[in-house]
Amino acid sequence: MKSLSPHPIYFGIRPIDIHHHVDTNKVYKKSKDFFPLINLLELLSNEFFIHLNLGDVKMIAKVPYLERMYKAGEEFKVHFNLEKIHIFDYISEKKIY
Which CATH number does the domain 9-85 belong to among 2.40.50.140, 3.40.630.10, 3.40.50.700, 3.40.50.1970? Predict the structure, then answer.
């Protein structure tokens, strides 16, 4: 596979495009499932911001509802909307994809 950049990259995705596995009624190109650990749950009106750790990578998922209450330290199955990812060159910070 040919590299798009000779430098390391940044991977970017908005919290709204990180989906909990129960969001099955949406149609988009999905990534494989990931199992990050919950660090913090924030209830904001009718939605949740879930702070997640996948190894050293920190991310925030915005989900409209939870089928049950989760606790810090639990796994939270997610996938990405691949149509909404952004890749940037680490050195120049220019968008590659």
Answer: 2.40.50.140
pTM, rounded to two decimals: 0.81
Which string of DSSP letters, residue by residue, matches 23-57? --S--S-B---B-PEEEEEEEETTEEEEEEEETTE
Helix (H, G, I), strand (E, B) or coil at 62: strand
- pLDDT-based confidence at 82, cuts 50/70/90? very high
From the list 20, 56, 22, the residue with the least C-alpha distance to 35 is: 20
Residues 6+ apart with CB under 8 A from 30: 19, 79, 80, 81, 82
Residue 88 token pair? 């940037």
Which pLDDT belongs to residue 1?
A: 43
Residue 5, by phi and psi: left (phi above 0), alpha (psi -120 to 50) or beta? beta
Nearest to 78 by CA among 65, 63, 93, 91: 63
